[in-house]
Specification:
The complex is a heterodimer of chains A (451) and B (549). Chain A is of the alpha/beta class. Chain A has helices at residues 20-25, 30-35, 41-51, 63-68, 93-100, 102-116, 130-146, 176-183, 212-224, 226-230, 272-279, 315-318, 338-352, 358-378, 381-393, 405-419, 421-431; strands at 79-84, 120-125, 161-166, 207-211, 233-234, 246-247, 249-256, 262-267, 289-293, 302-303, 328-333. In chain B, a hairpin with a 2-residue loop joins β13 and β14. In chain B, α2 crosses α3 and α8 (331-344) crosses α14 (504-514). The A-B interface holds A 170, 187, 189, 192, 350-359, 361-366, 369-370, 373, 386, 389, 393, 396-402, 441-447, 451 and B 43-49, 51, 67, 69-72, 75, 93-94, 97-98, 101-102, 104-105, 132-138, 159-160, 178-179, 181-186.
């Protein structure tokens, strides 16, 4: 396979890549000049739509289509929210972009706002990224000085203000309506839909919520054209009208037990094995991989046998995972206990459940409680079925919750137990030889403080 | 008009109704369980107890296509062609799971919980819950947290429906309550220094579907299943909220709002809610008395009633008679007394008792208003006083007539929960030779009365009140008055020599036939009351009092 030339990460190794001067010297803000003025907003939207760009934040919704959901002829204001609350475990691609190429981000945001006629953009930044905060703010200030932001951008009557908003470090703020609530100063409880944000979002106004990487892709789509973008990745399955294809470059965050963890840019559709071997330098310490998280912990697990699955929007679903998610791959080598993995996963989701919907609020805490007991050597085989029942019953897919966080909490449970059931059973049998088959209700262990 | 299908049953829904699945199902006689949804609050769809299956029926082909997943009925509009399935296996399983979830951390302390017997968690668990506990058993905690002067929180009983939080934000507009922590550690709380302290605070206890919010006034006073509730009208201000008065063996334990879209929606204020204690005040007057010189002698009510006809007839020959009709009387009672007095003296002076006013009207975010006018029936009483001459006399007019020596007999009704007459006012009436006083509590007036007839409190009365918006609402009596006190209406009934027990409905029939303002009450008065015509209040179109009630 020919070496893929990075586009999104093209500038990150350049000294002072975060400054406006360096960005402009490497062709920065050319896309903006190409669009703002010469092109109509609807044309920009059309280009993005044609490119087949799908949201990079996790759900993979077609970006251009999302923009067209905004009410036509709305008197405004229309808001753009950029989701930089990157809190999916294992994910750090937005961070790389914001720290090392913030102007690429800003250019994409300006283009997206131009296309959607948004006059205000909020970048919702997770609190744990102080360097991102500094560099984005610097980039925004530079843009105002250079006339890329503010009134009369590039001599047109297009005006835009970008505000940086720092979150207070909650996973749920990455859910788009949770983000909106938080931005409005409220508790980040995701909203019920409809109305969708495109109709009623921030401050009851039409709002688009896009990911940082999505915005960067917009920059390059305008710069290089939709055809270029479509030439990369996996085309839509002609036999499946619901498949929107997986086009363009993607940032994969590779971590865990590999020799060279890092953020790598590759065309969508690369297989997990290629990613590990060609980019990550193989599994560390000469060991074999046992499993891998394909796209952030909420997407579930690949077994080693499933490593040849392509990491595009459709691939992980074919092996029972929730989806591509944030394309954050975490490799687990053969020494890792899947029981430990699930325990950790449940602890995360019990901590991060916003607590609005009963099934998620109680289900995540309940599953953690069971895993605590299993880990303490008091597991029962019966627990596995109950865990699966919790996993199968929470989320927007069965319809029992408002947002998709619960699906993300459910998938690790479902995948881990269904794909590694024998390991769980073996663990329970060996750690609780006297009681593994007991079916009575048992006293719970003191709950580990998960705050 | 559209047809909604609920479990195969067709329900008609008007185009402008905007019903949700719960409301449409109720129309088909199907109750969908829910915790967080309340008709008076915004929809959050978070408890997930009302999950149902939904779909649409094609208007032409009649083919039904169902959605593949469950939806909350509270959030799903019931439009023409909408299909709801509320009893499928999937739905039942989801309900059972929610019930199981809610009980994981619940202390299950029903034996000592005030809510037991009217608790959604109990009822729904009985109906929809799992047969056995599958979650690990752990020692339960039952923490109690003070939220303010009226409400206490049993933290661990909470199911996080957020009704109370939304009430504070949407109805009261005071926003004291909030959710703290996250996930299964969430709790309801207030901010330090900002307790739940507003005049609608008690409503959050009614809203709480479980035993988490306790009303300090009612806490541990009575098991709810021993109480019977009676439809009444709050008498503490001119709004006249529809209420349930809940009693056991002639003791009122609790007053709660009764839904009335025309008056109070689902709410009432704390003044009314906690304002029933005077009913059982030890200082209540009991035992009728007649003055002989400087002494009072106890008499039976029947004896007093036998006396009063001849005595008022005699006094009518000496001068003018007068009656003071308290705005705490029902219109039926006022009508009977006015009728009786006028039968003795057609020129009798009819006056409205003092109208208590406290501060200004207080309006809350939802529009709910506590009126400064702290009595239930000024408009009803005024209409009776005006009839038939259109004249409206006041308490002060009675004073000046009395001071001028023109009054030979006056009948004064009280029934105020608070002191209402001072020494000066009583002194002005001291020269009247015959003074009958019916009241709840001793006052300077009581000291000058010729006849002392202890009267009834609101919980003991039956009859109707007309509120500030000219809405007439009927109340039924909830408890019997203490021995030695008589409901005013029954005294007048006997004075007029009417047969059997006092029956307010019969009086209202006469009243509706006699005074044009009350004509809309001629038919059965619905639970939510009947609207009177405000413009008819001041008109006096009817002929002279129809005789023979």
């Amino acid at each position: 396979m020919a070496k893929f030339e990075p586009v999104l990460l093209a500038n990150i190794d350049v000294p002072n890549s975060f400054t406006c001067a360096v960005y402009e010297s490497r062709g920065g803000y050319q896309a903006l000049r190409k669009a703002v003025g010469p092109m109509q907003p609807a044309d920009v939207t059309e280009v993005v739509k044609t490119s087949g760009l799908r949201g990079r934040g996790g759900a993979g919704f077609p970006t251009g289509l999302k923009w067209t959901f905004l009410p036509k002829g709305h008197p405004g204001p229309i808001y753009m929210c950029i989701n930089a609350d990157e809190s999916e475990p294992g994910t750090f691609n937005n961070r790389i972009l914001m720290e090392l190429d913030p102007h690429q981000v800003i250019e994409g945001v300006i283009l997206s706002c131009y296309a959607t006629r948004a006059t205000t953009a909020y970048i919702y930044l997770r609190y744990e990224y102080p360097l991102c905060y500094e560099r984005l703010q610097l980039a925004i200030d530079e843009c105002y000085a250079a006339g890329y932001l503010g009134k009369n951008i590039l001599g047109t009557d297009f005006a835009l203000d970008i505000y940086l908003h720092r979150g207070a470090a909650a996973y749920i703020c990455g859910e788009e309506t949770g983000l909106i609530e938080s931005l409005e100063g409220k508790r980040a409880w995701p909203r019920i839909k409809p109305p969708f944000p495109a109709v009623e979002g921030v401050f009851h106004k039409p709002t688009v919520v896009n990911n940082i990487e999505t915005a960067c892709c917009v920059t390059h789509i305008i710069d290089r054209g939709a055809d270029w973008f479509k030439s990369i990745g996996v085309p839509a399955d002609p036999n499946n009208p619901r498949d929107a294809g997986s086009y363009g470059p993607k940032l994969y965050c590779l971590s865990g037990h590999v020799n060279k963890p890092g953020c790598y840019e590759a065309p969508l559709g690369i297989t997990l094995r290629q990613l590990i071997d060609e980019y990550g330098g193989g599994v560390w310490k000469g060991r074999r991989a046992k499993a891998a998280i394909p796209g952030g912990i909420s997407m579930g697990l690949f077994t080693e046998a499933e490593f040849d699955t392509p990491l595009d929007f459709a691939g992980p679903g074919r092996v029972g995972c929730l989806g591509l998610g944030t394309a954050a791959v975490v490799v687990l080598d053969e020494t890792v206990s899947i029981v430990d993995f699930l325990h950790n996963s449940c602890r995360f989701f019990a901590h991060e459940s916003c607590g609005q919907c009963t099934p998620c609020r109680e289900g995540t805490a309940w599953s953690l409680r069971m895993l605590n007991r299993i880990k303490a050597g008091k597991g029962r085989l019966k627990d596995l079925d109950l865990l699966l029942e919790i996993g199968d019953s929470i989320g927007i897919i069965p319809g029992t919750t408002i947002c998709g966080l619960a699906d993300g909490a459910a998938w690790p449970i479902k995948n881990a137990i269904r794909k590694f059931r024998s390991e769980f059973e073996e663990y329970i049998r060996s750690t609780n030889p006297a009681g593994y088959a007991v079916v009575d209700a048992v006293p719970a262990l003191p709950v580990l403080a998960h705050h | 008009m559209g047809i909604v299908l609920v479990n195969g049953v067709e329900v008609e829904v008007a185009d402008d109704e905007r019903l949700n699945g719960i409301q449409a199902a109720a129309r088909a006689g199907v109750e969908i369980p829910r915790y967080c949804w309340h008709p008076g609050l915004s929809v959050v769809a978070s408890c997930r107890m009302c999950l149902v299956e939904t779909g649409t029926r094609n208007a032409e082909t009649g083919a039904i296509s169902m959605m593949p997943k469950l939806v909350p009925a509270c959030q799903t509009p019931a439009k023409a062609g909408t299909v709801f399935v509320t009893e499928s296996e999937t739905v039942k399983k989801a309900r059972a799971m929610v019930e199981e979830d809610l009980l994981i951390d619940h202390p299950i302390d029903c034996p000592i919980c005030d809510k037991a017997g009217e608790c959604y968690l109990q009822d729904y668990h009985f109906e929809h819950g799992q047969k056995e506990r599958r979650a690990d058993i752990r020692p339960f905690t039952s923490r109690r947290r003070d939220l303010g002067p009226t409400v206490t929180l049993f933290v661990d009983r909470c199911v996080m429906c957020s009704r109370c939080v939304r009430f504070g934000r949407e109805v009261a507009g005071t926003s004291e309550l909030l959710v703290i922590n996250r996930g299964s550690d969430e709790e309801i709380d207030v901010l330090p220094g900002f307790p739940l302290e507003n005049k609608l605070s008690g409503n959050v206890v009614d809203l709480c579907p479980v035993g988490a919010l306790g009303d300090k006034d009612f806490l541990y006073q009575q098991r709810v299943w021993f109480m019977k509730r009676h439809k009444q009208v709050c008498t503490h201000c001119a709004t006249g909220c529809s209420i349930w008065t809940e009693e056991n063996q002639d003791h009122v334990y609790r007053v709660r709002p009764r839904e009335n879209p025309h008056v109070n929606q689902w709410w009432m204020c704390d003044i009314g809610r906690y304002g029933f204690h005077h009913v059982h005040d030890a200082a209540r007057l009991v035992g009728a008395e007649r003055r002989d010189g400087d002494q009072y002698a106890a008499i039976e009510f029947s004896e007093a009633i036998a006396d009063l006809g001849p005595r008022f007839d005699a006094q009518a020959k000496q001068g003018r008679l007068a009656a003071v009709l308290s705005p705490f009387l029902t219109v039926e009672e006022a009508f009977l007394l006015a009728h009786w007095i006028r039968s003795r003296d057609a020129d009798a002076l009819m006056a409205v008792g003092p109208v208590p006013v406290e501060g200004e009207d207080e309006r809350f975010k939802s529009g709910f208003t506590i009126r400064a006018e702290r009595c239930p029936n000024r408009r009803g009483i005024e209409a009776i006083v005006r009839h038939p001459r259109g004249e409206l006399a006041s308490w002060e007019d009675v004073h000046s007539e009395a001071e001028a020596g023109r009054l030979s007999g006056v009948w004064i009704t009280g029934g105020y929960p608070k002191p209402w007459v001072d020494d000066a006012a009583a002194a002005k009436l001291a020269g009247v030779p015959l003074v009958v006083v019916q009241d709840l509590f001793a006052s300077p007036l009581w000291e000058i009365a010729t006849y002392r007839l202890p009267g009834a409190a609101f919980a003991e009365r039956e009859g109707s009140y007309v509120n500030v918006d000219h809405r007439l609402q009927a109340a039924e009596w909830a408890v019997r008055p203490p021995a030695g006190a008589r409901v005013e209406g029954s005294v007048y009934w006997q004075l007029l020599g009417l047969p059997g027990m006092y029956k307010s409905r019969r009086v209202l029939d006469d009243l509706a036939a006699t005074i044009g303002y009350f004509a809309p009450a001629a038919a059965l008065v619905p639970e939510t009351g009947v609207q009177l015509d405000a413009s008819a209040a001041e008109a006096s179109t009817a002929p002279l009092l129809a005789s023979g009630s």
